[in-house]
Amino acid sequence: MTTRSRAWLWIPLAAAALVGLVFWLPTPEDSGRSASTPAAPVLPSGSFEIRDVRLFDGERVLERATVRVENGLIAAVNPATAGDALPVVDGKGRTLLPGLIDAHTHSWGDALERALAFGVTTQLDQFGDVAMARDSRLETAPDRADLFTAGNLITRPGGHGTQFRPGTPALEATADEGAVDAFVAARIAEGSDWIKLVIEDGHEIGMPKLLPTLDAATVRAVVDAAHRRGKLAVAHVHALDAARMAVDAGVDGLVHTVVDALPDEAFARRLAENKVFVVPTLSVLGPRAALADDPRLAPFLTRAEGAQLRGPDLLAQLE
Amino acid sequence: VNALASPSTNSRGVSSARILGLEVRNEFLKLLRMPAFALPALFFPWMFYVLFGLVLPSGRSMGASGSTMSAYLLATYGVFGVLGVSLFSLGAGMAIERGQGWATVRRAMPSSTPLHLMARLTVASTFGLTVVVGLCILAATFGGVRLPTTQWALLLAVVALCALPFGAVGLALGQMLGPNSAAGVINAVYLPMSFLSGLWIPLQILPKALQAAAPIWPSYHASQVALSVVGGQAGALANGSVWSSVLALGLFTVGGFLVAARLQKRAAARTWG
Prior knowledge:
heterodimer, A: alpha/beta, five-stranded mixed β-sheet, four-stranded parallel β-sheet, B: mainly alpha, globular
């Protein structure tokens, strides 16, 4: 009987240890809380008043204003009655402006929490995790930015983008118009908020072996498939000829500027006429180390972020 | 063995639960006393995971893809762990013990084949669970893997339950193979099978033809279920539907047991008339 009871004792012990382990294992919320750098200070409640602040509302500047926030929403600017019950933030010597939108990110880890330190309240991810974007919008958390994403790219097997993540779905070169349409539909079903195409063979940076990339007919088919479903189509381009191909196909935006040639005025006019926006991403294509050393920015950067800015630039990462 | 054969258990009408408890206990004792099996069964998945799931991705330029790899391989090495113990315990182990005459001795014991199989499945499941618990700790501590608590729990449950289909397949193989060849043949099947069903490296890296052939392997279906539990970017790498994979695992379970029962019956008829 003694061996029997001792043996049975192991079962509840092991079960308890297992349950303990499951609750010990970290959840996504944990990584938010234990971020390596302090997040922007969060007010204890969503209701407060910022007083005597220089205010830019997106159109005008008010030199001295009071903004009352109730339950996370702006309730009044320069309210007639004083809100004595609310916590007060002294805005003297500071400027208040609407949250910024970063139009080209690749958001992962604590990017959404860190964005707030730079005044960014919305990130537009141009190739990333659809689940992260979906989760970020399930609840409005005051301590992180909102995230919208292109999700997975429209690129060829082995094309640009696939090097970052093994197993990325890619559009086969043999795909006909129907297959292209189905591929785009699958990305939207997955959670892509818009469609991003990659027109990039690397010739403009002298890659020894050119990358497989989309041809003009496919680009057109992708753009049409996205537009049929009411989604924007944007293009990753670094080369002027790729940019022309994208604009000819009717894309809504270019999410890099071109680096191999100076676009002529006629091209700029075409962009303007077709209302094609350009996200130049100069902060990654330009002299990035200068950003890391800028005294206005440096105090807000973590050591890892500084090191990344001083590291190899985006074009080097293409290879 | 002493406990099983002792007269006190023999003379009384002993409950099945007690016999099962003893069978489980003795299976564990056997594994502990033969560390040649138990140690590699635990350490190989852990070692592989450290090398391919933690060390390798940490050298990549983008952190996001690194933790995706860590999450993907957490699911698949968990499956790999339970696959190995199940195939060896119910396949090679049974065949070897048959060769040593244990199957004959067992006929004189107060236990039954179903109870013995349940004990072996329980032990395989517990070993699988131990493997995946270790993997979870590694993944959480060094791989930056973060999952909601329910998903952690589900992953453990999926891996533990995978002992059933894998055990059934192992049992069928064990009945087909001879005592001397079983371990070798099962090794020769299970290592390539793990690779071909994407347990070691993501399936999407393999040639298209092999990807298309992956659904023939039970381990492929187990990995699809485990990956969908992990979800996120790693889950997006699962390409089949979860429920069809669950169904496939059910069919492997039933099929494995049926084949094994048939073979066993035939062998018994030959031996005992």
